[in-house]
Amino acid sequence: MKFPTEQIANLECEILKNVRGHPGISRVALARAMGISPSTVGNYVARLFAEGFLVESKEPMADAGRPPTALRLNSEGGQFIGVDFEAHNIMAMAIDFADTPVKHAHKVIEDSDSVAQILRKIEQAIAEVQPENSNQLLAIGVGVPGLVDAANGIALHYKHIIQWRNVPLAAPLAEKFRVPVFLENCVRSMALAEMWFGQGRGEENFVCIGVRTGIGAGIVAGGQLQRGAAHHAGEIGRWRFPWPASQSICYLANGEVSNAADAELEDIASVRAILAALERARQSREKSTLLPRTGPLTFTDVVRAAQQRDVATVQIIEVAAEVLGRAVSQLIFALDPSRVIIAGPLTLLGGTLLNPLRAKVESILRASDANMPLILNSTMGEYNGALGAAALAVHEWKPAR
Q1: Residue 85 in contact with residue 91, Cβ under 8 Å?
Q2: Per the CB 3.0–4.6 Å rule, which of 20, 64, 155, 385 could disulfide with 84?
Q3: How far apart are CA 72 and CA 297, in angstroms?
Q4: Within 13 Å, how many C-alpha atoms sit on residue 74's CB side?
Q5: Total-model pTM
Q6: Segment (H or E) for 239
Q7: In a 10 Å sphere around its CB, with 0-12 CB exposed, 13-18 middle and 19+ buried, how is residue 135 labelled?
């Protein structure tokens, strides 16, 4: 049977996805999974084998007989690059064709950087991790903060980068590196990383909440990443919540609590908000281990102070956890996930944030007799978004025909 060129590319792409999801699968099992004849699968597997995308091996058998041929991805078949960025950091990672990380790079975004300077830093990060043989690079995925038009490759808006509006990303990068470039919201990239490599692996319904300069949710339902009608699903950082009652609220509210009945989630529970609150506490000479610290506070300082059970630090983190817990509860009521995964720097706080967050969620759900899903920290580290963006490139790429 002969297929049109586009159908051939689609068929080969589906074969590679099946092998990626089931390493060691046999031709017969592959044909059964795809619902096509073994002879057709054999023809296209042979083509992919010749092109260096697949390798095969003989699987040992307990009984006598001909061992089945197992199909696996060829790690030398090419490389994919993922880029993840937000207001302060650009993270890039290259993975080989068998999904093994090869190189990574980190660039810092300064507050004074223009949009053009940020784009140059993204290009530099990609150049640092690209393979020596440029022909080995197959595709690039980019996790973009804020609103994104993935279909047209445009970053629409992100309030934490000055003048970041309607920024073309895919076309300039594709022209420079001569490979397809795919965009996705950065928190949805984190959810992809969790779905394929992390705490969401094997889960059909889960939520990944990325907390960095802003806050967003990557939603997986029925095994599919949810993007929404306008590709804006998961923008929970703009949700508004009442200020919680706490003696630390003056530092989080920055004097605004008397003028506003509520505040946006990311203005209370983001990394940016926590750092700003602790800086205000320090400027007010609040008793704290952070008081002698010179220069701007970093999140490393916050983690160290939390580990030392510094009272001011723990109180501010617990306020953030309470409000974040309210947001998680609303997501649970709406989506009924089997688990909620917290990703980003807040995971470094361990139980200092996770325990009060879980307690808040449990109290809200118990009052409505709702089921309590697992709530846990990501274990993938600071490059999880970049890995997810690389996985996006893997998922969207098709063999050239």
Answers
A1: yes
A2: 385
A3: 47
A4: 14
A5: 0.87
A6: none
A7: exposed
Tokens for 50?
A: 């010749």
State how far the alpha carbon of 205 is from the alpha carbons of 67, 107, 191, 305, 337, in Å.
37, 33, 11, 35, 5
71-108: pLDDT as tens digits: 999 999 999 999 999 999 999 999 999 999 999 999 99
Average pLDDT, the chain: 90
Q: Helix (H, G, I), strand (E, B), or coil: what is residue 260?
A: coil
Q: What is the pLDDT of residue 3?
A: 57
CATH number assigned to the domain covering 5-73: 1.10.10.10
Contact 139, 393 (CB under 8 A): yes
Return the structure tokens found at 179.
């490979």
CA-CA-CA-CA torsion sign (247, 216, 260, 326): negative
Q: Delimit the domains of the chain by residue range.
A: 5-73, 78-198+384-396, 206-377
The Cα 27–Cα 19 span in angstroms is: 10
Burial tier of 327 (Cβ tally within 10 Å: 0-12, 13-18, 19+): buried
d(CA 187, CA 210): 6
User: Does residue 371 surpass a pLDDT of 60?
Assistant: yes
The sign of the dihedral angle between the CA atoms of 238, 189, 142, 210 is positive
Q: How many CA atoms lie within 13 A of 33 on its CB side?
A: 16
Q: For residue 346, what are the CA distances in angstroms to 213, 240, 303, 375?
A: 11, 20, 9, 14
H/E segment holding residue 167: strand 165-168
Q: Which CATH architecture has domain 206-377?
A: 2-Layer Sandwich (3.30)
Q: What is the pLDDT of residues 225-278, one digit of tens each?
A: 999 988 889 999 999 988 777 666 677 766 554 445 688 999 899 999 999 999
Please report how many Cα atoms fall inside a 13 Å half-sphere around the Cα of residue 106, on the Cβ side.
Answer: 7
What pLDDT shows up at residue 251?
A: 75
> Same CATH fold, 206-377 and 5-73?
no
Residue 92, classed as helix, strand or coil, is strand
